[in-house]
Amino acid sequence: MFRLLCITAHPDDEVGGFGGTLLLYGSRGVETYVTCLTPGQAATNRGGARSDAELAAMRRAEFAEACKILRVHHGEVLDYPDARLYRVDFFEVVGVLTRRIREIRPHVVLTIGPEGAITAHPDHSMASVFATVAYHWAGRSNHYPEQLINGLKPHRAQKLYYATANFVLEDRPPVSLPPATAIIEVGDILETKIIAFSAHVSQRPLLPIFEKTIRNRGACERYHLAAAITPRTLDGIEHDLFTGVIE
Questions:
Q1: What are phi and psi of 221, to 5 degrees?
Q2: What is the CATH code of the structural domain delimited by 3-228?
Q3: Is the pLDDT of residue 19 over 80?
Q4: Is 97:7 a contact under the CB 8 Å cutoff?
Q5: What is the pLDDT of residues 80-101, one digit of tens each?
Q6: What is the crossing angle of helices 189-198 and 207-217, to 10°?
Q7: How far, in Å, CA of 64 to CA of 66, rounded?
Q8: What are phi and psi of 83, to 5 degrees?
C-alpha cells in the first residue's frame, strides 16, 4: 500500500495547499499522514480563546475534524511555537521529522516551498527547510543513529514535492514560487476542500479570502518535484504524484 506524508506548519495548512490531494489519494486507498509542527496558538483570529493554550487546544480539535473530512489516515499536531519556528533547535526538529519518516515509511513526502508559499509566512519557510533535511537524512544511517533500535531502520522516501501555485497575493511580501512539475486535478473535491477549511472554526474570518484564493487556483493543486531517489530529467507535467514510484 502506498503511503504519503505531508509536513506543514499550522492547522489549516493541510487544507490550503494539500487538501484536494490528501482527499483524492485517501479515497484511492493511499495511507495519508499529516504532521503539523505548531498548534497555531499565535494566530490573529482567536475564536474566542482567552489564552494561547486555549486556542492551541481549539485548533488541535479543528485540525482533527478537517483531517477526518479529508480522509487522512493519521494526523498529528506537534507543540513547537507558532510564529517562532526560526528560533527552535534545528537539529531537534529535524530529528523528530526524521523519526516520523522512518516510522511511517512514506513513498512520497509533501511540504511547503522554502519561499513560504503564497503568504510568505516565515513558519512555512522553516517547515520546508526542516522537512527537506529530514527527507534526506531519514535515509542515512549516520544521522540520528540512536533512533535505529527496536527494528527502526533508515528510510528513503522516493519523492519530495513542494506545493506551489500559478499566482501570487499582491498584498503579501514578494515570493518566487517553484515552477509546477505536477498538476493534480481535484475537480469536485474543491467543494469538500472548502468544507474542510470551515472545520477550522476559529479561523472562520479567513474563509472568504481562502475560498476566493483556491477558486483562483482552479480545480487543481500544483507541486514542484524537489527531490527523487532516481536521478532524472523532467520531461513534461506529471498528473500523479506516484508516477514511477515502486510500492
A1: -125, 140
A2: 3.40.50.10320
A3: yes
A4: yes
A5: 999 999 999 999 999 999 999 9
A6: 160
A7: 6
A8: 70, 5
Confidence class for position 73, pLDDT limits 50, 70, 90: very high
How many angstroms separate the CA atoms of 187 and 72, rounded?
19
The angle subtended at Cα 216 by Cα 161 and Cα 165, nearest 5°, is: 20
The cell 509533501 sits on which residue? Answer: 110
Cα gap 236→239, rounded to integer Å: 10
Strand-pair partners of 31: 3
Contacts with 122 (C-beta within 8 Å, 6 or more apart), sequence order:
83, 85, 86, 116
Is residue 114 within 8 A of residue 132, CB to CB? The reply is yes
What residue type is 80 in one-letter code? Y
Domain ranges across the chain: 3-228
Phi (first) and psi of residue 108, to 5 degrees: -130, 140
Question: Which one, of 142, 149, 112, lies nearest residue 130 by Cα?
Answer: 112
3-state helix, strand, coil in the chain (%, to 5): 40, 15, 45
Burial code (b: 16+ CB inside 10 Å, e: under 16) for 86-99 equals eeeeeeebbbebbe
Residues 6+ apart with CB under 8 A from 7: 34, 35, 37, 97, 109, 110, 111, 127, 130, 131, 134
Q: Are 59 and 11 in contact (CB under 8 A)?
A: yes
